[in-house]
Sequence to fold (204 residues):
Amino acid sequence: MSTTRTRRTRKSRRRTRSAWPAILILGTLTLTVLLAVLVPLAASRDPLALCVDEPASFPASGIAGWKGDQLENAATIMRTATVQGFDHDGQVIGVMAAMGESTLHNIGYGDWETSGVENPDGSRTTSIGLFQQQEWWGSVETRMDPASAAALFYERLGRLTGWQDMTPSHAIHDVQINTDSEHYARFEDDATTIVDALSGPCPA
Fold:
């Protein structure tokens, strides 16, 4: 082998060696970009993902006629129920209660403002929020926060002996002290439909 050829071979090896860091950097950058794109995409298509945890994926057309902030509030109630140890039936009861009290809207007014309803002692009601809780339930801030209001509801439901064996509307009535124990019954089917839908992958 000639000296010239040896020199060329050494130069070629040097070029090859010097190219490796650039190739590695380019490969790392490409992999990083691919992961940044594919991982969120895979997660969004995870068949095991629960819709209740993905408000942005709630169907715009709604579920059983309920949509937008109503579904978001229903999801908050469900998540709060889960944290406090309530299963599917407890979640349905919570959603039913809020449907019957506020149509699942977090409103800052109540029966006094809309209908002039008074308490048994003649004082004006102070109901606000998803569950239309009066001032003895907690502060305005607590009652107007959907998760905190739901926690208050479930705390009292949990103290109600035998609530699991009661009809859902009657159990809610004993917590909310509504004048009509059957007031919430008409919401059971819709509440069940929503809880079932949000408990699995989001419907299209």
